[in-house]
Amino acid sequence: MTVTDDAAVSSGATRSNDPLVELVDVQKWYGDLHVLQDINLTVQRGEVVVVIGPSGSGKSTLCRTINRLETIDKGLIQVDGAPLPQEGKALAAHRADVGMVFQSFNLFAHKTILENVTLGPIKVRKKSKAEAEALAKELLDRVGVGHQAAKYPAQLSGGQQQRVAIARALAMEPKVMLFDEPTSALDPEMIKEVLDVMVDLAERGMTMIVVTHEMGFARTAANRVVFMADGRMVETADPETFFTNPESDRAKDFLGKILKH
Amino acid sequence: MTPLNAVLDNLDQFFKAFGYTLFLFLVCAVASMALGALLVAMRVGPIGVLRKVAAVYVSLVRNTPLVLIFIFFHFAAPIIGINFKWVQIYVGSFDFTSAFATAFIALSLYTSCFVCEALRSGVNAVSIGQAEAARAIGLPFSGVMTQVVLPQALRASVPPLASALIAMLKNTSVAGIFFLAEATATMRGLSNDFSSQRLGIFLCFAIGYIVLVEIVSMISLSFERRWRIA
Amino acid sequence: MRLRKAFAATAVTLIAATGLVACGDAGDDKAGRDVEAKNDCDDKFEAGSRMAAIADAGTINVGVKYDQPGLGFKGATDDVPSGFDIEVAKLLVADLCIDPASDKVNWEETISDNREPYLESGKVDIVLASYSITEDRQKVVGQAGPYMVTGQRILVKSDSDVKSVDDLKGKEVCSVTGSTSLDRIKEKGAKGVGADSYSECAEKVLDGTYVAMTTDGTILAGLAAQNEGELKVVGDEFSEENIGVGYGKDKPEMCEWINGVLSDAFEDGSWAEAFELTLGPSGVETPEPPALLPCK
Questions:
Q1: What is the CATH number of the domain that holds B37?
Q2: In CA terms, which of A75, A242, C81, C269 is 20 to 30 Å from B141?
């Protein structure tokens, strides 16, 4: 199979020639372990890409390289036509443009919900406090936790915390949103409330790279599914094709295991 | 004549002595907290040279007896031109001159190492995800530290910080050997003038220290309680 | 106490080791006078008296200073301390039929803070450590003598304009923490600062941190001799101290004995000889022996 990008064919004309995130020949090792091998992926503006694969396949690492929470050893990563800065102010500015949602929410434990969402806009985007709070309240309302603004993270449920985390990322008005297994740490009854927010986001045209096992979300919102195993992109396809008729044996094997339940 | 007459008749000296002790404690607490925070930022920061410098500084100063640091600033530093003769601040009946300034420098430099280590234990207690989330919204290293990591580290470090500050409060007595009429030096002066009341004098000054230490512990406890929720 | 003593010892050792204070010119290479032990102790002292007990045991603990050149000083390389206090102590020791030059005499260092506690606990039998006789001290220990009357004076840099204690009003003047001198200089309107030893004070006067230091003129003369051309003693004596011998309060019989030995030494010239030998080199003229205070 080929590892080159076929998004242009599969995801429609509107996004055909507007690449936002590009990974070219990306390699990463942890000591002897080759965790990312020959990664070539282009995500168009407005596209939603779901990354799927067994644990240890490198999918989270891939996600985290895009805002350089993980460094790469070889290759090139570009966002909006500019390669990732190395360190310092330029890197901070880059990260401000790339929203990230973590598996374990990582809300700032010592700040209120409102302060969690206004911190970035005030300190990084240099907005006034009033402006940042107005934006934060709007976003918190949108994700359904507006009435919790004065509480601390520990006083909220996991689903609520994760929705706040999404609002926190959105408050930076990012070009692209990265989701690193956003529902894996949640109790089952809370998964839907987070996925609903993500679907809504996709419908509004946000460019998203989502590492998840949620097939429902992939089918509803994704333009493309990338299947990873052993640090490689094994298969790339539109969701319908991937779930009903996967090409590779690895994908068949993997889907066989997770779809049984 | 009670065994406490020596102190009761010299209450002005008693309170002035503890005034020096308290002043010295307060200014050293502020300075060593600030310097300790800077040191811990260097130690956990991204710049290798600064990490090394901070680590070497902490292990060097922390492993040197406080008395030697005092001796250095009083008797060795003047030889290479470092002295505090120029410090002449007079507030009421308190003189903040060379002896006070030297004690301030020696104690602050010394205590900042313990503050740094207390804060570092707190930084280690802050989950890595907190720093990652802070970086992910585009905060530079300084913002990650001042907005997210240090405030939480401070909460986790309150007990060890309180220990470091209480130790420092008692360490102010070393200044009494070096020209400063703080509580311990004054106790020795009174003991000499009123040899027959040594026990009473000792008890009064010991109680003075215990009261001050108790106040510091209580402040620390109230911070612990207030921050437990968050 | 032990900790503080350790501090002091550390400080002194370090200062000496780093060569910051030129210790040990005065008082060095002087064995002092040869004082021969008496041999008439079999029936000299009343049975049951402390003197008889010490003479019987054949050993004695004497509290002295280690940091006062000319009076009681022990350099880092010296085996035994030297100075006027030690010379007087030798006379007392010899009278108990103990050889002052032998190792039967334990010269214990008693810093100012230690003198009463050491006497009260019996750690030392007698104290000769520039020990001023005061009423308050006599509440807890016995004091006999005096064997010397000293006057407090001031020591300044050689190029200083200070002429007398009157020039020091409002200025910081160094002396040893817990010493009577520190109280006296404050009474004179100066701001007293307390150091741990006289050599530290001298160091701070030399480096210009403090304009002057103050204590007994004899000690200052010793320090001035150590730092010839850099330090000088100025002004008149502005307070007098009677320097006596400390003993345990529960052994009142020692007072008459001490005064007896001192009185003999005043008369036979050994007191004057000792003074000349120890304090003479610092330029102090040998005075008339002081009048002994009656025992209570």
A1: 1.10.3720.10
A2: A75
